[in-house]
Amino acid sequence: MISEDVVSVAVVSSRSEAEIIAGLLRSYGIKVGVSADDAGQQEPQLQLNGVHVYVAPGDEAEAREILSASGQ
Fold this sequence. Notes:
- This is DUF2007 domain-containing protein.
- It contains 2 helices and 3 strands.
- The protein is of the alpha+beta class.
């Protein structure tokens, strides 16, 4: 379950892509979480709703700006 004190700043089709985005945001000092409904990475085909990248609400604007500037 995702806490209500985080916001999704990206939804992508694979955990690998989400981890790349998370790494980019972490390089700017933003705390990031990645979540997918894929049975703990054992069933990647279950990622029907995509893989979400989450940040704290206070970091949302900066994260979106970084992602926009990087073409994400």
